[in-house]
């Protein structure tokens, strides 16, 4: 065993020997798995639990003594920093009349079942990533400002959730559930040592700093704290803020409750002047989750906000209970009080922000009910269920037409969240690169070639997805439209990752369709360019549209069909030895470089169009669109595999080969056809992500097999294919920079015989 592996506490492996790890019974049912599960000490009932599950059976001393820096939990750290969002979400918005101040907190399920909803949790919660098909991942993080993983009350969120929330510019909170009186509430949680410190508060801050998330939502149900505890709770919050700053980050603390003296639930549903101390005391609670019947006590809250300096949009979240709803998917104003806090379409001034509860589970359950109604009480095949579940998610956020610019119609007041709040965007830094990877698929592709046929999920590597899903409008009139083209993600076709953007349909006229994709804030340096990688099975014409900050009412269109074909520049996708990129391989900028070109990716159907933007230096792109035109009656069949905006000067960075690569652990499965592995390496902050691969077949060893992608310093591989007769498998680790260029690989050998 290497010194690195020994330092992290790895168990030495002998091929064929069992390797028992805490909670490994949940690793796909395999008791000998080496999976680094999100597990901890047994509870009093003898059952295992998620790491740091704080409830009535938790022992304080055991919690404080537990070594969270162990080899298993080191796999659950997030290294993705919070991205900067665009400064004004109302600019170029689907509904510019909306107030830009209201925020959205989402307390929902993640990694629930596509087919089975959230009726009981899935083993996927135990993993950061894995090889399973029936795992649902959310695709609308552009609306979420605060996110917490409520389904399992845990003091450390799944790192994949933190990764994607940070990439989209939001904050990820752990969910602290305390129902009392218990042995982990009141005296235990608020215990103060003689030196004035709060051991529980200190430990919670240390967990956030180590695992990379942003804070906690304290669920103070059933009189966990009362008026006598208020000074201690405020002091603990202040202590936590101070300790967080000493650790180099700003912590966010949200509370649900507490009621002033434990009298009744009604006290949670408004903010009185007495309760306002939690928000007005410096460095106390950062925000408040108002219980769901707040509408009945709204006057008290409004009066309190009028006489305090509480920020209603940053600090007050009006809770919306979705658990158990069985109506249409969306926000029904006839039954939901949301419109009282945030009037749809900006019809009057909003009062604050909102917090959604149990969105994913309830949307999925409703979709299942609709499908069963249409199929004789049974769910149809998996593909239809999966498609319907994600369409249901889009209906909730974008409205019943699945177009955020189209308000609902019909007799009921049914809206999507896009009718209440703006989508935010984190496309605010160059280089910008997205491959429309949703974070779960049935395959994985690299450089336009399928590199794995294994199903997989990893929310943490989801790309920045379109700000508006999907804002289509008539190219001639500019009016939003429900057709004639359909836009969705294709999980069967990808350029890099697991998905592409599919544009299909049959136009009935020659007007064309605009698809507004991204709200951006990209200031262009010298020698800038935009590129689109796509494949077409039709005669449709494709154009890339850019909107600039100094002329927001004009879209500048670049027709890709008129670009000259030039395949002498070689591969420009950043793959291969050294990762050749734009500005290399024969292209020397000249006076004519702004015209751009198209090139075919050798051995594939993908082509790349590069549009020079040298004449736009100093301007800021605030919006990116696509336009599709085709003769009436023509079938359109397009796939968009990559969209990028960068500049020659930003393409010079090629990451160095990863260092410190160690096989922490491995195990050959009993059937001999696959193995598990745990790898460790030195993480570099300049790297966007790491890919783990193995060599191809004996006939084609150059064709690499993708095994996993992650932004961290280690990974667990659930399925490494092992071929007959192999005594060892060479595992490769390759780094990719934000500009898409890749490093030379590092290698480590895994014995399998």
UniProtKB/TrEMBL annotation:
TM region positions: none
Superkingdom as given in the UniProt entry: Bacteria
Residue stretches making up the Cytosolic endo-beta-N-acetylglucosaminidase TIM barrel domain: 134-443
InterPro entries: ENGase, Ig-like_fold, TIM_ENGase
Protein name: Cytosolic endo-beta-N-acetylglucosaminidase TIM barrel domain-containing protein
Source organism: Brachybacterium hainanense
């Amino acid at each position: 065993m290497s010194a690195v592996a020994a330092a992290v506490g790895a168990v030495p492996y002998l091929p064929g020997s069992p390797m028992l790890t805490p909670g490994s019974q949940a690793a796909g049912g395999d008791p000998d798995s080496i999976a680094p599960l999100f597990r901890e000490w047994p509870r009093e009932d003898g059952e295992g639990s998620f790491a740091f599950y704080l409830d009535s059976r938790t022992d304080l001393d055991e919690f404080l003594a537990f070594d969270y820096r162990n080899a298993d939990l080191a796999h659950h750290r997030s290294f993705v920093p919070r991205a900067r969002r665009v400064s004004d979400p109302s600019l170029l918005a689907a509904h510019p009349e909306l107030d830009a101040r209201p925020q959205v907190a989402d307390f929902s399920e993640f990694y629930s079942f596509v087919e089975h909803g959230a009726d009981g949790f899935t083993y996927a919660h135990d993993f950061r990533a894995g090889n399973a098909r029936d795992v649902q991942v959310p695709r609308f993080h552009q609306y979420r400002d605060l996110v917490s993983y409520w389904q399992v009350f845990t003091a450390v969120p799944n790192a994949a959730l933190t990764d994607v929330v940070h990439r989209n510019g939001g904050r990820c909170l752990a969910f602290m559930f305390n129902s009392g009186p218990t042995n982990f509430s009141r005296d235990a949680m608020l215990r103060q040592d003689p030196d004035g410190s709060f051991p529980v508060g200190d430990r919670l801050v240390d967990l956030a700093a180590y695992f990379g998330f942003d804070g906690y939502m304290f669920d103070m149900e059933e009189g966990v704290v009362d008026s006598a505890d208020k000074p201690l709770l405020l002091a603990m919050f202040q202590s936590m803020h101070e300790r967080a700053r000493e650790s180099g980050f700003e912590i966010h603390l949200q509370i649900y409750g507490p009621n002033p003296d434990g009298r009744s639930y009604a006290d949670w549903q408004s903010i009185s002047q007495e309760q306002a101390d939690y928000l007005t005391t410096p460095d106390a609670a950062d925000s408040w989750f108002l219980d769901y019947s707040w509408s009945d006590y709204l006057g008290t809250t409004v009066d309190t906000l009028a006489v305090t300096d509480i920020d209603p949009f940053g600090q007050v979240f009006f809770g919306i209970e979705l658990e158990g709803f069985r109506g249409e998917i969306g926000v029904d104003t006839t039954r939901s009080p949301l419109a009282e806090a945030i009037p749809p379409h900006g019809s009057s001034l909003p009062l604050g922000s909102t917090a959604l509860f149990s969105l994913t589970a309830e949307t999925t359950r409703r979709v299942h009910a609709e499908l069963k109604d249409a199929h004789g009480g049974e769910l149809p095949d998996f593909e239809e269920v999966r498609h319907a579940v994600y369409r249901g998610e889009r209906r909730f956020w974008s409205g019943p037409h699945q177009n955020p610019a189209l308000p609902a119609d019909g007799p009921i007041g049914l809206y999507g969240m896009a009718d209440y709040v703006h989508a935010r965007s984190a496309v605010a830094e160059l280089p910008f690169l997205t491959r429309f990877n949703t974070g779960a698929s049935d395959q994985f592709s690299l450089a336009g070639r399928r590199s794995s046929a294994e199903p997989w999920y990893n929310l943490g590597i989801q790309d920045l997805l379109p700000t508006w899903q999907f804002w289509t409008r008539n190219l001639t009139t500019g009016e939003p439209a429900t057709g004639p083209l359909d836009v969705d993600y294709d999980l069967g076709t990808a350029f890099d990752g697991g998905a592409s953007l599919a544009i299909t349909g049959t136009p009935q006229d020659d007007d064309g369709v605009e698809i507004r994709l991204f709200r951006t804030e990209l200031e262009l340096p010298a020698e800038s360019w935009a590129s689109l990688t796509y494949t077409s099975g039709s005669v449709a014409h494709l154009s890339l549209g850019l909107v600039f900050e100094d002329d927001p009412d004009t879209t500048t269109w670049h027709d890709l069909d008129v670009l000259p074909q030039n395949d002498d520049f070689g591969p420009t996708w950043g793959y291969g030895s050294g990762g050749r990129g734009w500005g290399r391989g024969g292209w020397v900028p000249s006076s004519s470089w702004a015209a751009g070109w198209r090139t075919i990716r050798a051995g594939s159907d993908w082509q790349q169009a590069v549009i020079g933007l040298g004449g736009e230096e100093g301007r800021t792109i605030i919006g990116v669109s696509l336009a599709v035109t085709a003769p009436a009656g023509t079938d359109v069949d397009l796939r968009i595999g990559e969209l990028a905006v960068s500049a020659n000067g930003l393409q010079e960075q090629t990451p160095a080969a990863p260092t410190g690569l160690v096989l922490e652990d491995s195990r050959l499965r009993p059937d001999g056809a696959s193995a598990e592995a745990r790898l460790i390496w030195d993480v570099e902050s300049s790297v966007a992500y790491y890919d783990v691969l193995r060599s191809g077949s004996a006939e084609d060893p150059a064709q690499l097999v993708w095994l996993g992608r992650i932004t961290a310093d280690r990974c667990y591989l659930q399925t490494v294919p092992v071929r007959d007769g192999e005594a060892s498998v060479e595992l490769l680790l390759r780094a990719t920079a934000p500009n898409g260029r890749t490093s030379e690989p590092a290698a480590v050998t895994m014995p399998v015989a």
